[in-house]
Design brief:
The chain is mostly helical. The chain has helices spanning 2-8, 20-72, 83-109, 111-120, 126-130. The protein is elongated.
C-alpha cells in the first residue's frame, strides 16, 4: 500500500516508477546493493585489521629477537639473520638515524610544527618552554 501511494506522487521533471510493484522492486534492488556493499566493507576492514595486527606482532617479535642478539653479542652478524630480521634492522636503523634526526631538527627549522607534533603525541606544556 505504501508503494502504491508513492507511485501516485508526480514530480515535474522527475521520472518515477509507474506503480507500487516497480517501486518495491527498486527498493529491493537498492537494499541488496547496500547489503552487499556493507558485507564487502566489513570483509576489507577485517582483512586490513588482521594484517595490521599480524604485522605489529611480527615487528614486536623481530624487535625481541634483535634484543636477544644484542645481549648475546651476535647482532652484527647480518649474514646469519633471517631475511625478515635483516629487513627490520635496516628500516629501524634508517628510521632512528634519519627520521628521528629530521623531526628533531624541526625544533629549530619549523618550531610551530614541532610543537604541534609534540602536543598531538601527548607532550605537555614542557615543550612550550623549549621553543
Amino acid at each position: 500500500e505504501l508503494f502504491e501511494t508513492l507511485a501516485r506522487i508526480e514530480i515535474d521533471g522527475v521520472s518515477t516508477p509507474a506503480n507500487g510493484h516497480v517501486y518495491l522492486e527498486l527498493v529491493e534492488n537498492v537494499h541488496i546493493q547496500l547489503f552487499l556493499g556493507m558485507v564487502l566493507y566489513f570483509i576489507i576492514a577485517w582483512i586490513v585489521a588482521k594484517n595490521s595486527i599480524d604485522r605489529n606482532m611480527l615487528s614486536e617479535q623481530l624487535r625481541m629477537d634483535w634484543i636477544e642478539q644484542l645481549k648475546a653479542g651476535t647482532a652484527k652478524n647480518l649474514h646469519t639473520d633471517p631475511p625478515a630480521l635483516r629487513k627490520f634492522k635496516r628500516w629501524r636503523v634508517h628510521f632512528q638515524e634519519q627520521g628521528v634526526k629530521e623531526v628533531l631538527a624541526w625544533q629549530e627549522s619549523r618550531p610551530e610544527l614541532f610543537l604541534k607534533i609534540c602536543r598531538d603525541m601527548g607532550g605537555g606544556s614542557g615543550f612550550d618552554a623549549a621553543a
